[in-house]
Amino acid sequence: QVQLVESGGGLVQAGGSLRLSCAASGGTFSSYAMAWFRQAPGKEREFVAVISRSGGATRYADSTKGRFTISRDNAKNTVYLQMNSLKPEDTAVYYCATTKATWTLPNESDYWGQGTQVTVSS
User: Fold this and answer.
1) Hey, which residues does 49 pair with through a beta bridge?
2) Band (34; pLDDT cuts 50, 70, 90)
């Protein structure tokens, strides 16, 4: 059983930045690739970014590539999402999740955090 807790969300103006954190416990953090997803009201949950177990490989959604950076610190059991040049369309609840590799998506055997709200005003 793995527990994931996101933090760092908030209200920011367009063009601003936020750094989200996801702290893991209850498992071997370095055995998981880690992903960020987001969900806006009335929309499906959307992939944002994923990072490999050791942090050596990353993959991003086209809508966030060049603006967002995913990273991890295995010594702290934490994955981060640095978000720059934020746009109103980035407004959503952001979730972190475990996954098996950078080319896979979470399935029923993976774990999700509770989410943190990000609101970007125009």
Assistant:
1) 36, 60
2) very high
Cβ neighbours of residue 82 under 8 Å, at least 6 residues apart?
17, 19, 68, 69, 70, 71
**Residue located via tokens 């944002």:** 48
Burial of residue 44 (CB within 10 Å: 0-12, 13-18, 19+) is exposed
Query: Quick one: tokens of 55?
Result: 């942090």
Residue 31 · residue 39 · CB < 8 Å: no
Least Cα distance to 30 among 80, 76, 96, 70 occurs for: 76
Q: Where are the alpha helices (DSSP H) in 11-90?
A: none
- Rounded to a whole number of angstroms, the distance between the first and last alpha carbons of the chain is 40
Whether the per-residue pLDDT at 1 is higher than 90: the answer is: no
Taking the C-alpha atoms of residue 37 and residue 53, their distance in angstroms, rounded to an integer, is 17
